Amino acid sequence: MIRQSTAPVLPALSPEPATPDGAPQRIALRRSVAIWAALAVSILAVTSAVFACLASHLGAGQAVPLTLVVWAWLTLCALRYGRAQPVALKIGADGLSVWGRTGALLAHGRIAGCSQWSGRLLILAVMPDQGGPRTLLLAADTLPAPVFRELAVLGRRGAGA
Fold first, then answer.
1. What is the pLDDT of residues 52-65, one digit of tens each?
2. DSSP letter at 118?
3. Dihedral of CA 94/100/105/110: which sign?
4. Is 26 part of a structural domain of the chain?
5. Model confidence over 115-144: pLDDT tens digits?
6. Domain span at 74
7. Same domain? 111 vs 139
C-alpha cells in the first residue's frame, strides 16, 4: 500500500516570477517602514540636540530659527535620499540588476560581498564589469521574504563565506 503524505507541497524557491519566455522579471521594492522610522527618529534627535546646544549659548528665542533651519535641511536630505533609492531589482544568471525611480539602471554586476544584520538588514556589494563596487542597502521589509533570503545566500556565496 502506498501512503500519501499530508504535508503541503511547497513550490521551488524562485526569486521572482518568470515571463512566458522564461526570463526573470523585475522585483518591485517597497519603501521600508523601518528605515523611514529610524530616519525620522534620527532627525528629531539631531534637531533637539542642536536646539539644546544653541539655546544654552544664544537663548531659546534665537535658537528656534536656527534649529528650524537644521530640521528643514535634514528633512530635505531625507526626501532626497528617498528619491534616490532603487525601486526594482532583478536576480539573473549574470548577476544583480538594480533600477531607480526613472527607470535608469543604477547598478548591474555580480554580488561580490555581503553583510547581514540579523534577518532585518542586508548590505550587498555589487561589482560591475568596470569600475568599483556599488553598495546596496536592503531592509527586510522592502522585499518578499524568499527574495531577501535568496539575496542573503547569494551575498554569502559572493563573499566566500
1. 999 999 999 999 99
2. T
3. negative
4. no
5. 888 888 999 989 888 888 889 999 999 999
6. 33-84
7. yes
